[in-house]
Every structure is written in C-alpha cells, then in structure tokens.
Amino acid sequence: MKNYLFPSRIKKISGLIFYLTTMIGAVIYISDINMDDIIRIKVPALINDPFFTNQRGIWIENGIFDELITVVLILSGIIHSFSKEKMEDEYISSIRLQALTWSIYVNYGLVLLATLLIFGMAYFHVMIIHLFSLIILFNLRFQYKLRAYYKISNDEE
Amino acid sequence: MKNRIKVLRAELSISQDYLAQQLGVSRQTIHAIENNKYSPSLTLGMSIAKLFNKTVEEVFQMEEETEKEK
Q: Fewest C-beta in 10 Å: which of A2, A21, A64, A112?
C-alpha cells in the first residue's frame, strides 16, 4: 500500500533544518526585527496591496527573508514529519496517525480559544503563529511518542 | 485483543528480535503486540499465525472470548 512518505535518509537533515529555522523564526518574530529590510529584491506579485507595500505593478521590491523562513520551515517540517523511520512498520504508522489527530485537535482548540478571547491587531499574531503551529505541534508530539516507542526495553521472558 | 505470542515464542525458544526480522517489523512492535498495547493489522496477524504454524484464532483472542473461557 502506498504510504506517501519520504525516504528515511532525509529525516535527520530535514529535522535539523526544521528546528533551526523554527528557532531563528521565533527569535526574529519575538525580537520584532523588521524583516522587510533583509534581502530586498524585485519579486513578482500576483496580488499586491499598495496600502502595505506602497508599490504598484506586477514587479515589486520586497524583503524576502520572511518568505524564505516560511518556505524553508514549512517544507522541512513536512519532510521531517513524513519521512520514514529506519524500520518503518504499521505500528509507527499508527503512532504517526495518532500524533496527527492529537495535534489537529490541540491546534484548532487553541485557535478557537484565541478566536473567542483575542481581538484587534493581536489576532493578526494568532494567524501568523497558526501558519506554523500545526506542523510544530505535530512534530513535537510525534517525536515524543517515537522516543517512548524506542525506549521500550529488552524485557524478553 | 489478547494474544499468545509470548507463550508460542517461548515454546519455540525464539527472541522478539528474530520474530521481528522474520515479519519485517521492529522488535518494539512485537513487544507492543505481546503486551496488548497495539493490535496488529489483519495482514500482520495472519503472518504471525503462519509463522507459528497456527490459525489466527489460536494466536489471537478477543477479550470477550478469553473472559468466557475463564
């Protein structure tokens, strides 16, 4: 049966990139650095709101650091989450499915709470965090469960 | 669902590792099945039974059945 998973050889490197990018992204986001000033180049804009960019036309000048972080974080997160383990079997698949279910419940539970309790521009931060929270929560939960799985002792009788 | 894998394994003196290798799964998966923490798929269940030269019912029992037997 096709399982749509990536090969296990890219799991470690994608995990390293994912956790590194998550930390860099979090630090930059919390420290409120203006990312629009980093790596400014001309980019094609399918939709552009001149209110925010002060620019019109298809080609606009934009700091692409935030886009870079977003793309790398999402891609590495997906690859790390859905790479095969060295010994990928049906029990691992069931752990992955359980972690995915858990993370969807928790993620959308938090979004619902935020929707009911956070208003104004602060809700904009909720939407930004929500872009990455599902993949981060899923990764943390899956890795935690995998750690428990690999810790199963050699208690053969 | 209960199973008799641990007993059958002991009768044949084979390790979890050996059984896992024969079935193409990890030792942890065999451990989880033996301790009723994970119910294997029909395919894996049938492979386990075949490996022990038993029927699926001889290896796996539903909880209700084992209660009735008591």
A: A2
